[in-house]
Amino acid sequence: MIYDVCVVGCGAAGMMAAYAAASSGKKTVIIEKNEKAGKKIYITGKGRCNVTNACDVTDFFSHVITNEKFLYSSIYGFTAMDVMSLIESYGCNLKVERGERVFPVSDHSSDIIKAMVNAVKDKDVEIRFNTDVTDILSETDGEGNTVATGVKLSDKSKLTAKKVIIATGGLSYPSTGSTGDGYKFAEKFGHKIVPTAPSLVALVTREKWPSDLMGLSLKNVSVNLSDKATGKNIYNGFGEMLFTHFGVSGPLILTASCYYVKKFRGREADLSIDLKPALDEETLDKRLVREFEENKNKNFANAVGSLFPGKLIPVMVKLSGISGERKVHEITREERLSFVKLIKNLPLTVVKTGDFNEAVITQGGVDVKEVNPHTMESKKVKNLYFAGEVLDVDAQTGGYNLQIAWSTGHLAGESC
Ligand SMILES: Cc1cc2nc3c(=O)[nH]c(=O)nc-3n(C[C@H](O)[C@H](O)[C@H](O)COP(=O)(O)OP(=O)(O)OC[C@H]3O[C@@H](n4cnc5c(N)ncnc54)[C@H](O)[C@@H]3O)c2cc1C
Question: Which domains occur in the chain, in start order?
Answer without folding.
Answer: 2-197+363-415 (3.50.50.60), 202-354 (1.10.8.100)
